[in-house]
Amino acid sequence: MDEKDILGRIHELVEEEHRLRDSAAEHGDAERARVAELERHLDQAWDLLRQRRAKRQYGEDPGEAGERPESQVEGYLQ
Fold it and tell me: Where is this region: Disordered (predicted)?
């Protein structure tokens, strides 16, 4: 997966998140759970993109970057 693919995935996730949040008055448990899931996937995608860019910046192979587990990514400070 290259940066273009990762950015495309981020865009898709953000679009879905916005659609769900725009209909917030109609949210049930399933919608809230889906928003939380989207947020976790977004955190992972952004982390992967940052890893790839950092590797490229320091002369390493960006292809060596890998998706980190949700438990690890969720613990990062923003």
Answer: 54-78
